[in-house]
Amino acid sequence: MSLLVKDLSVRYGRKRVLDALGLDAQPGHITAIVGPNVSGKSTLIKAVCGDLPYDGSIRLNGLDISRAEPWRLAALRGVLPQAAVLAFPFHVIEVVRIGLQAGSGAEHDGRAETALARVGLLGDAHRYYQELSGGEQQRVQLARVLAQVCEPVSDQGPRWLILDEPVSSLDVAHQMQVMDIARDFAVNGGGVLAVMHDLNLPALYADQMVVMSKGTGRAAGAPQDVMTDAVVSEAYGCALRVSTPPAGAIPYILPHAATS
Known about the structure:
260 residues, 2 domains, 14 strands, Rossmann fold
């Protein structure tokens, strides 16, 4: 049971955005996708979710996503997009309950409230979604996803959180809160696939990092193996130095002037 991508290629018109990309994300792990802008990270997420035509193979828990029924996929994975716009004035609790309708927890009373409590917004359940800040809206959308895949493991195997830049609008404390939620989901048997811009958070939380550049994977493995000066500098096209604090082996990134 895994999220297995083989020889994935995607075109936008004549332009090839992903080129023979491979990925093997395991349940119980956080797999972080990192790389510069226009490297294909969000395109990968859209393809994995079945939102784009592609060449190659994508299997979720053994299911070919191009042939699986939407309801079956909705019961196995919840997707947090990079941005979500609502045109009508829904209450926060109503937005979260959309996840119940899509997933496997619709019959469970209190599931939406539990999800809101996990992201620290239970007290805002009856506010209008449009009244919230961008960061709060992002956390509401995460609660919707958590309500959809309410348990990390089901009778059909592990469930998956697929997150596209889940901390982009958040302050440091809420970034850590979201990553702790992802870690808890993985520790309890689920799988997490997350696109990240920040390199230090994946280094701290991820079990596997995939570094992308120009539509393909440059390196994949544990953070301490992937995050090297050569790999990140080549991928991002600038001088970067990977360092580790004296008390531990968690790598972190410091930018350096390219001319120094």
